[in-house]
Design brief:
This protein is of the alpha/beta class. It has 14 helices and 15 strands. The strands form two sheets. The protein has an eight-stranded mixed sheet, with helices on both faces. A seven-stranded parallel sheet has the order 10-11-9-12-13-8-14, sandwiched between helices. Strand 3, helix 5 and strand 4 form a beta-alpha-beta unit.
C-alpha cells in the first residue's frame, strides 16, 4: 500500500516524498486507517517495524486539517533518547506543514527547562515527553492539558519495566476523557493488557500484532568496541582499508559530527560529501547525485535522509554512532546489499552505547560479530563501565527552531 492511498494532506505528502517514503510498512498499513477514523489502537509492534510513522502521520494529518489552539497531542516515551528520535522524525515529516512540536526530557540545564516551560504555556501542538520531566512541569501548575485530542504511549512495556506506571496514570488522570488513545508495545503480556484497559477509552480497541523487520541476509554485519575519542581514527582506518569500495556511506548522530567527520576525512585525502538538515535542498541533491553517479565515493549523513537514500551499489555502511533503536539501525544498514548484492555494515560502539546495541541485537534475534581493533588502536577499547561524568549523548531539544507555534517557517530549508 502506498502512502498516497491514505489521502493525506498535500503538505504531509510533500514531507513523505522528500524523505523518500513511498510504500507503507505492515504496521503503518494496519494502524493508519483506524487511527484516522478516531479509534483507539492497541498495537504490539517492535522497534524496526515503522511504528513511529504509523502513529505520527494520522495525527499530523488531522492537525493539518483541524488545527488546535492548545496542546493537541501528547506522546509519552520511556527515555530521552526515544523522545529525541520521535521529535526529529516529527520535524522531518511536518516540515511542509504548519505543525510544530517540542521534546520535553531531563538531563539538560535550566535553560532547556525554561524553554520547555515557554512552549508548554503557549501550547505547542505536539508534546513528546518522558514521564518524569513532564510530571515536573505539571507539578508547577502552568501546563494545561484540557485541549488534548490524542494520547500516545510508545514502548509501553519498557515504561512499565522502568516503574513509570504511577507517573503515567497521574498524567492520564489530568487528560480529557474524550480523547483518542494509542498504545504501542514491543510485547503484550498480561500486565500491559491490564494497563491498557485502564487508559483506553474503547472497550474493544483495534488490536495489531506486527513482527520486527530483519536486515537482509546478504549484509555482513560487524562491530568495533571503541572509546569515543578514538572513533575518528578508526573511521580513517576503515576508509583506508576499503579504498577499493565504490561507495561508502557513514551515519553520524549529529550534524556537528557529520561536519567534523567530513573535514577530517577530506584532510586525509578522501573525497567526502555531507548530507544533513542545515544544508540547502540543492546542496543535498547535488551531493547525492554525485554519490549515485560515482564521482563522490564517500558521504557522511545524519538520519534525516537515511531512509530516502535509494542508491544501488553502496558497498559499505558505517554507523559512526549507534542509532537509538533497531528501526534506525535496520534502515541504515539496509542502504547496502541492494538488488541481491552483498554489503558490509560496521558499527562503532562506545561504552555508553553498549546497552543500546544489545537491545538492537535482541530485537534482531542475532549477535553481531565484534572485530578486534587495528594495531594502532589496540589500547582504545572502552572500559567495562562508562564514565558517569560522560553521560550519554546530549542533543539540543526545544521546539522546532524552523517554525514558531503559529506555523511560520523561516527561509532556512532542511
Amino acid at each position: 500500500m502506498k502512502f498516497s492511498d491514505f489521502g493525506f494532506e498535500p503538505g504531509l505528502m510533500e514531507g513523505l516524498e522528500a524523505m523518500g517514503f513511498e510504500t507503507a510498512t505492515p504496521v503503518q498499513e494496519q494502524a493508519i486507517p483506524p487511527i484516522m477514523e478516531g479509534k483507539d489502537v492497541l498495537a504490539c509492534a517492535q522497534t524496526g517495524t515503522g511504528k513511529t510513522a504509523a502513529f505520527l502521520l494520522p495525527v499530523l494529518n488531522r492537525l493539518a486539517q483541524e488545527p488546535n489552539d492548545g496542546i493537541d497531542t501528547l506522546i509519552i516515551e520511556p527515555t530521552r533518547e526515544l523522545a529525541q528520535q520521535v521529535d526529529q522524525q516529527l520535524e522531518a515529516l511536518s516540515y511542509f506543514t504548519s505543525v510544530s512540536s517540542i521534546a520535553v526530557y531531563g538531563g539538560r540545564d535550566g535553560h532547556a527547562m525554561e524553554q520547555e516551560k515557554r512552549a508548554l504555556k503557549r501550547g505547542a501542538p505536539i508534546i513528546v515527553a518522558t514521564p518524569g520531566r513532564l510530571t515536573s512541569h505539571l507539578d508547577l501548575g502552568y501546563v494545561k492539558l484540557d485541549s488534548i485530542r490524542h494520547l500516545i504511549l510508545d514502548d509501553a512495556d519498557r515504561m512499565l519495566d522502568m516503574g513509570f506506571a504511577p507517573a503515567i496514570m497521574n498524567i492520564v488522570n489530568k487528560l480529557p476523557l474524550e480523547r483518542q488513545t494509542l498504545l504501542f508495545s514491543a510485547t503484550m503480556p498480561g500486565n500491559i493488557r491490564k494497563f491498557a484497559r485502564q487508559i483506553l477509552r474503547d472497550k474493544k480497541p483495534v488490536e495489531i500484532n506486527i513482527a520486527i523487520s530483519k536486515p537482509a541476509k546478504n549484509i555482513l554485519q560487524a562491530a568495533y568496541e571503541i572509546r569515543e575519542d578514538a572513533k575518528l581514527k578508526l573511521a580513517e582506518w576503515v576508509i583506508a582499508q576499503n579504498q577499493r569500495a565504490e561507495r561508502i556511506l557513514i551515519f553520524a548522530g549529529t550534524k556537528k559530527k557529520v561536519r567534523e567527520l567530513q573535514s577530517s576525512l577530506n584532510r586525509m585525502g578522501a573525497k567526502v560529501g555531507a548530507v544533513h538538515s542545515d544544508l540547502a535542498q540543492e546542496e543535498r541533491e547535488n551531493c547525492l547525485l554525485n554519490f549515485k553517479n560515482g564521482s563522490l565515493p564517500i558521504v557522511v549523513a545524519t538520519d534525516v535522509l537515511s531512509r530516502g537514500i535509494d542508491i544501488k551499489g553502496i558497498d559499505v555502511v558505517v554507523n559512526y554512532d549507534v542509532p537509538g533503536d533497531a528501526e534506525d539501525y535496520v534502515h541504515r544498514i539496509g542502504r547496502t546489499a541492494r538488488a541481491d548484492a552483498s554489503g558490509l555494515a560496521l558499527t562503532f560502539i562506545n561504552a555508553e552505547d553498549r546497552y543500546k546495541f544489545r537491545r538492537i541485537e535482541d530485537l534482531m534475534e542475532m549477535k553481531v560479530r565484534k572485530l578486534p581493533l587495528p594495531p594502532d588502536l589496540k589500547d582504545a577499547t572502552p572500559p567495562d563501565r562508562p564514565n558517569k561524568r560522560g553521560g550519554g549523548r546530549r542533543m539540543g531539544g526545544g521546539y522546532n527552531r524552523n517554525k514558531n507555534f503559529k506555523g511560520r517557517k523561516n527561509n532556512r530549508r532542511k
